[in-house]
Design brief:
A 9-stranded mixed beta sheet has the order 9-8-7-10-6-1-4-5-11, with helices on both faces. It has a two-stranded antiparallel sheet with strand order 2-3. By secondary structure, the protein is α/β, with parallel strands linked by helices. Helix 2 links the parallel strand 4 and strand 5. It contains 6 helices and 11 strands.
Length: 266
């Protein structure tokens, strides 16, 4: 059986940064990149299933990104993934979560996994949409915010627990193949050993193009997206004022501030 794990190399801001000249993103020179935290838990859950299985289980890490994302994939290989797939084409630039989901769904159709894991969200964008959108495009059963999973490879169903609001838990039995979005805390991700890191560096990363997945430029990028970034900017900082004096004096000053804000004469 196969478990496909969708991962992302996320970007975090350095202390100092500038916005790109087009005003739509951060200058990449000021970004620090790493494997998305939620995806680390997804990968660990897949590897745990593989290690406990009596029959062979193949764990495949897949990402959508430039060759810079190979670093994240090699982390996955070092932590137990058997294969790594990266999908990229210049037309993919500017894809929103729905367009990315369209790519992941195409990879799933090609690989035919029994389970597809994705993190609940990414730490940089936090849309929490890619995994569920992928399930919709595949027309597969899905469950979000999974914090406990019991699955025996080869079984037709999986038992899982979902985290809901206000501390409520939802126990579900789901048919496979299925898409699950994995929550933090479902397990304890392992550290990669020096030996496994060296071995991962020598393993190939399979590159897939849109053509190989049966997709066109119209399916991805801004053309295939349902949303786009119009502008990114630093908001104007507000200011605070401590109003001192008696209750009456404070009330009078507060009323004056409101009038000033509304542009009314004193």
């Amino acid at each position: 059986m196969k478990i496909l794990v969708a991962v992302k190399q996320v970007a975090a801001l350095d202390e100092d940064f500038t916005i790109r000249a087009d005003g739509r993103d951060i200058n990449p020179d000021f970004l620090i990149r790493d494997l998305n935290e939620w995806d680390d838990f997804s990968l660990e859950e897949a590897v745990k299933i593989k290690e406990s299985a009596a029959a062979p289980v193949e764990v495949i890490a897949v990402t959508v990104g430039t060759d810079a994302a190979d670093e994240a994939l090699r982390k996955c290989l070092a932590k137990g993934a058997d294969r790594a797939i990266r999908v990229w084409d210049d037309a993919v630039e500017g894809s929103d979560p729905i367009a990315i989901a369209r790519i992941l769904a195409a990879v799933a159709r090609k690989e035919q996994p029994d389970l597809l894991f994705a993190g609940v969200q990414s730490s940089d964008q936090s849309f929490a949409a890619t995994g569920i959108a992928t399930a919709a495009l595949l027309d597969w059963p899905h469950a979000a915010v999974v914090n406990q999973l019991t699955y025996t490879p080869g079984a037709k169903t999986a038992l899982l627990r979902r985290e809901l609001e206000a501390g409520v838990a939802h126990v579900v039995q789901i048919q496979v193949p299925a898409v699950l979005t994995i929550q933090l805390g479902i397990n304890t991700p392992r550290y990669a050993s020096l030996r496994s890191i060296k071995q991962a560096a020598a393993k190939p990363v399979e590159l897939l193009t849109l053509d190989a997945l049966g997709l066109s430029a119209a399916d991805v990028g801004e053309a295939g997206s349902l949303s786009r970034v119009r502008r990114m900017y630093m908001p104007t900082k507000g200011r605070a004022q401590l109003i001192e004096g008696s209750s009456s004096e404070q009330a009078q000053r507060l009323a004056a501030i409101i009038r000033e804000f509304k542009g009314e004469a004193a």
